[in-house]
Amino acid sequence: MTTDDVLVIDDIVIPPGSYKTVEIQVARLLSGTLIHMPVHVFRSANPGPTLLLSGGLHGDEVNGIEVVRRMISLGIFEDIQCGTVVALPIINVYGFLFFSREVPDGKDVNRSFPGSSNGSLAAQVAHTLATKILPVVDMGIDFHTGGASRTNYPQIRYDPLDPNAVDMAKAFQAPISMGSGLISGSLRACGQAHGVPIIVYEGGESLRLDEQAIKEAIRGTKRFMHHVGMLPKSPKVHGIKGREKASPKLPRHIAGNSWVRAEASGLFSFERASGQAVREGELIGRIRNPYDSYTVKIFSPMDGFIIGHNNIPLVHRGDALFHIGKESPWPEPES
Ligand SMILES: [Zn+2]
User: Fold this and answer.
1) Which one, 13, 28, 80, 281, has the greatest CB density within 10 A?
2) 258 CA to middle of ligand 1, Å?
3) What CATH class does 7-227 carry?
4) pLDDT reported for residue 335
5) CA–CA separation, 143 vs 147, rounded Å?
6) Fold: same for 7-227 and 256-327
7) pLDDT reported for residue 1
8) How many A from CA of 224 to the centre of ligand 1?
9) Helix (H) or strand (E) holding 106
10) How remote is the CA of residue 153 from the centroid of ligand 1, in Å?
11) pTM more than 0.85
């Protein structure tokens, strides 16, 4: 519950101009150990928006967790000029403990919103967020990492039908931005039901730290915090070199994205990778039979930009290999 100057999370009162960590109880492990979801709350003495920064909704998505941890560690939120930052490094502590995307019953928290207090473990985690955090925040950035062995080039995904989310994505200026509709049961959809626009940042691969993805996330968050008056300065947009050379054409807005899938099973090697521009018909990878009885060449189906690729060298026919999108203008505001 929030008014102009009172913020209460899980019965803990956090006055303006103060910092508190609230340990929200969720559920016990099999061993009886009680699991908490620590929430770090930083409040300026000056009124302003309340911004949620969360990671680890999928427990193995380490880059998102590291982004929030590092921003707390760097002290970025300690001198905000207005408003409140609610920083939640790990939503799904259960998945984190088991190096897993899901909670131990196999359910995805990001398909379990709004959840319920006596539902599955995933539903309980979702319910905790939906009832204790979403009602007190105005907007959110949720940090993710590519699933399984797939890596995502640093990118923001936003709801193209929500002008507030478009505005947030534009202020963040990630290397790549793209519209992505709301999925039923997701945190973003639940946020919308609470009137809280949430954008999702994706960068790197699960269980592998990616310094470029982490740094781009922090720079974009600072740009957004500057946009809403929390920080006096805004990092410039270009400058981080990853595996590819830093492209002068970033940031880009992408649409028409689709996955190129494996046409055969075998050993996969990529010739082009996330962050690279490709032309239609360009050779981007190969799948070879381990006994050398066949090789299948993979060509880009379009002119575009690789926004994600699969790092695993063993693929079955149908596996997702390259996520490619086309550059396109931002959606026009409706008049
Ligand atoms: Zn995720």
Assistant:
1) 80
2) 18
3) alpha beta
4) 58
5) 13
6) no
7) 41
8) 21
9) none
10) 14
11) yes
Residue 310, token pair as written in the block: 């699969």
Check residue 3 and give its pLDDT: 47
Cα 289–Cα 293–Cα 295 angle in degrees, nearest 5:
55
Does residue 196 sit in helix, strand or coil?
coil
Give the C-alpha separation, 140 to 87, whole Å.
10
What are the φ and ψ backbone dihedral angles of 166, each rounded to 5 degrees? Answer: -60, -45
In sequence order, what DSSP letters do the residues of 10-61 get, joined into one string? TTEEE-TT-EEEEEEEEEE-TTSPEEEEEEEEEE-SS---EEEEEE-SSTT-
Q: How many angstroms is it from 240 CA to the middle of ligand 1?
A: 23
* Amino acid code (one letter) for 185: G
Percent of the chain having pLDDT more than 70? 95
Distance 4 CA to ligand 1 centre (A): 33
Render pLDDT for 100-127 as a digit per residue (tens, 0 to 9): 999 998 999 999 999 999 999 999 999 9
Neighbour tally for 101: CB within 10 Å: 21
**Average of pLDDT values for 143-163?**
95
Cα of 156 from ligand 1 centre, angstroms:
12
pLDDT at 261: 98
- Ligand 1 centroid from CA 146, angstroms: 7
- Given a cut of 60, whether residue 314 has pLDDT beyond it is yes
Report domain extents, the chain.
7-227, 256-327
- The rounded Å distance from CA 256 to ligand 1 centre is 21
Q: What is the pLDDT of residues 287-313, one digit of tens each?
A: 999 999 999 999 999 999 999 999 999
322 CB contacts (<8 Å, ≥6 apart)? Answer: 259, 260, 270, 272, 284, 285, 298, 300, 306, 308, 309, 310
Q: H or E element: which one contains 149?
A: none
Fold (topology level) of 256-327: OB fold (Dihydrolipoamide Acetyltransferase, E2P) (2.40.50)
- Cα(267) to centroid(ligand 1), Å: 26
